[in-house]
Amino acid sequence: VQLHESGGGSVQTGASLRLPCAATGISLSSYGMGWFRQAPGKEREFVAAISWGGRRTYYSDSVKGRFTISKDNAKNTVTLEMNSLKPEDTGVYYCGAEMVETYYDAKDYDYWGQGTQVTVSS
After folding, report:
1. Residues near 47 by beta carbon (within 8 Å), at least 6 away in sequence
2. C-alpha span between 35 and 44 (Å, rounded)
3. Do residues 52 and 30 make contact, with C-beta atoms less than 8 angstroms apart?
4. Whether the Cβ atoms of residue 45 and residue 60 lie closer than 8 Å to each other
5. Residue 39: what pLDDT?
6. 58 with 71: CB under 8 angstroms?
7. pLDDT digit string (tens) for 52-99?
8. Other beta carbons less than 10 A from residue 117's beta carbon
């Protein structure tokens, strides 16, 4: 099983980035998917999640209204669209797959990607 994130980079405040996560070895139609991020010296924190069927989405208060998570089960991908980026959005972004439908706790995720770095400068 592999999850592969891409699309990270260094941008300025207010810019946008699109982070795709492609899965192999599992069918994302059976998994809820989440995005978490981790800044240096901090714990991994929840950013957004989407249910296995793609009908329910969840966001942290810090990104609500700026980020959008979407899922394409046919392409086995999940994408995080990030707009109006802020320096506090800086971190390594990870996508994860889980089956218990709790979404907010990283401990409930079964699989993780290797992460992609997002750096937002002021």
Report:
1. 34, 35, 36, 37, 59, 60, 63, 67, 80, 93
2. 10
3. yes
4. yes
5. 95
6. no
7. 999 999 999 999 999 999 999 999 999 999 999 999 999 999 999 999
8. 12
What is the separation of C-alpha 89 from the centre of its chain, rounded to a whole number of angstroms?
12
Up-side HSE of residue 25: CA atoms within 13 Å toward CB?
9
Per DSSP bridges, beta strands 9-12 and 116-121 are parallel
**Cβ-contact 77, 60 below 8 angstroms:** no
Q: What are the DSSP E strand ranges found in 1-122? A: 2-5, 9-12, 17-24, 32-38, 45-50, 57-59, 67-72, 77-82, 91-98, 111-112, 116-121
The mean pLDDT value of the chain amounts to 97
pLDDT grade, residue 13 (50/70/90)? very high
Q: What percent of the chain has pLDDT over 90?
A: 98
Mapped onto helix, strand or coil, the DSSP state of residue 107 is: helix
Alpha-carbon distance of 66 to 64, in angstroms, equals: 6
